[in-house]
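Q: What would this chain look like folded?
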Amino acid sequence: MPMLLILGWSIVVLLGICMAVNGAFMLASPRAWFRLPHWLGKRGSLTEKKYARGWGAIQVRLAGGMILATITWVVYDSVRGRR
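A: My prediction, written as C-alpha cells:
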C-alpha cells in the first residue's frame, strides 16, 4: 500500500508542476506558451495563429490565471486543513 501512495502523490505533484508551468506561461505570454514543447505545453486544438494575439491571447491569459488560482486554492486549502 505505501508504494501505491507514493506513486499516487508523485503523479499528483508532476501534474501540478506541469499545470503550474503551463498556467504561468499562459498568463505571462501566450506566444511563449505556444513555443513550449508539445509534451509540456498542453494546447489541445488551440492554434498560435488564432490565440497568440488579440482577443485569443486575452482568453489564453484568463485561462492561465484560472489555472494558477485553482492550484493556489487547492494548495492553500490542503495546508490549512479542515476544522
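The chain has one domain: 2-80.
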